[in-house]
């Protein structure tokens, strides 16, 4: 246990403006508490405060929200050479009978850390290129949402036009089609409604074209970073730059997931027992990182469509009486194991 390996544990409950801090002995007995500001001055004060109140050199800092309000503090503490532990927010069961306040949450962060296995500490996710991928994926989500909405709006306006516009609405909106819509001139005898419709068509055509270019540029950036971090990952069947980037962001760095089973639990692809009576079966896990699960699901669908080995596997399992959902569950578990082994073996630290 971590309690047997350290001289003290620091628990931090993070907020936007201030952080509540407690330092406690391995037995969980509080030594001192303080409150710091969420800025560089507060981080320096905390490090000096820890030195003054620590009973020994072996320390661990359990921080809640290491990728949110506690991001700056986690970076400062890690730069100082202290062990940083990613602490989850306490649930109702942990709070039962204790109430809710910032000092209580800081103490719960200490108790949570002391109960951890020293060989399986939840370390914070990595920065560097991994953080760049996370930012690009967030931007891609927004770009995709706006691009889809603008495309649907443009098609709806085209459906309200003449036969040429209706055919364009049903066809693929290529760069040539969008360029023609952007250059289209309004008729001289157009009434107000026609003029407004024409102006919206031009605006949406330009926006859809720019959105497609932004998505292509985003994909190229993802591809370049993924190839630098994990060479050869995108060469595997069904693994594109977006799915590979999400796998890297969730995996973070070698050592965060202790084995492929832990990575499968993180991805929500670990099988769960769903047996009853004479029925012996497993079902999909509905927990974990749903973004990673979606990426694995996309890889599985692509392989079921394009990969001969996967199609042969699906046919064999179908002949054994497995349902399509159960076959997808098995495929996603195999894909998760393959991703874990590739990331753990070839990922280049930054």
Description:
With about 350 residues, this protein is α/β, with parallel strands linked by helices. It has 3 domains: about 1-115, Nucleotidyltransferase, domain 5; about 130-230; about 235-345, no CATH class. About 55% of the residues lie in helices and about 10% in strands. The protein contains 13 helices and 7 strands. The chain has helices at about 40-55, 70-80, 90-95, 100-115, 130-160, 165-170, 175-185, 190-230, 240-250, 260-265, 290-305, 310-320, 325-345; strands at about 10-15, 20-25, 30-35, 60-65, 85, 270-275, 280-285. The chain has a 5-stranded mixed beta sheet, with helices on both faces. The chain has a two-stranded antiparallel sheet with strand order 6-7. Helix 5 runs antiparallel to helix 8 and helix 11 (about 290-305) crosses helix 13. The protein starts with 7 loop residues before the first strand and ends with a helix. The model has no long low-confidence stretch (mean pLDDT about 90). This is IS110 family transposase. InterPro entries: Transp_IS110-like_N (IPR002525), Transpos_IS110 (IPR047650), Transposase_20 (IPR003346). It comes from Pseudonocardia tropica.
What is the number of helical segments per DSSP (H or I, 4+ residues)?
13
End-to-end CA span: 30 Å
Question: How much beta, percentage-wise?
Answer: 5-15%
- Percent of residues in helices comes to 55-70%
The topology string of helices and strands comes to: EEEHEHEHHHHHHHHEEHHH
Q: What would you call the structural class?
A: alpha/beta
C-alpha Rg (nearest Å): 26 Å
Q: Regions with pLDDT < 50 over 5+ consecutive residues?
A: none
Work out the number of β strands.
Answer: 7
Largest sheet: 5 strands, mixed
Tertiary shape: globular
Number of domains: 3
- Side by side, the strands of the main sheet go 3-2-1-4-5
Mean model confidence by pLDDT: 90
Pfam family, one: DEDD_Tnp_IS110
Domain Transposase IS110-like N-terminal: 10-159
InterPro entries: Transp_IS110-like_N, Transpos_IS110, Transposase_20
Protein name: IS110 family transposase
